Fold this sequence. Notes:
Blueprint: H1 7-60, E1 83-87, E2 94-102, E3 105-112, E4 119-124, E5 130-132, E6 139-143, E7 149-162, E8 167-180
Antiparallel strand pairs: 1-2, 2-3, 3-4, 5-7, 6-7, 7-8
Amino acid sequence: xxxxxxxxxxxxxxxxxxxxxxxxxxxxxxxxxxxxxxxxxxxxxxxxxxxxxxxxxxxxxxxxxxxxxxxxxxxxxxxxxxxxxxxxxxxxxxxxxxxxxxxxxxxxxxxxxxxxxxxxxxxxxxxxxxxxxxxxxxxxxxxxxxxxxxxxxxxxxxxxxxxxxxxxxxxxxxxxxxxxx
Length: 181
């Protein structure tokens, strides 16, 4: 009797080995994709929360008793909902918080100072893997007629896309800031 393995035994061992390797690689790829989604989601959340805090700081810096508006805060939002003009309590200068549609994509900017000599600070201008979705209804404002309360609401969507993994995540961000006149 000859000692050794038959062709069938060798094929069975090779087949089982290939199945085990395929299973492990599928699991590892799933872990990698899941980890990438989590990192992208965390990055979106960090950026969105930072932007919301900066927008809130700008609005809370409004001069509610601005004599130009008769001592009352008005809701100066443009018709397409992409910007709001406020007056700073610190220096009386006007600041425009605006969502811009540029060649490089959408950006959120705070434009401060006197007309023609203002300073533009981009609160968000897009990144390699995170983008602002659009400027529709970026800001809205309302003042209750029989009340001394005004409400400014900012709304935007950030999107992270990782084309190599076919991952696309979006997250909506919104903040309401209420002011007393």
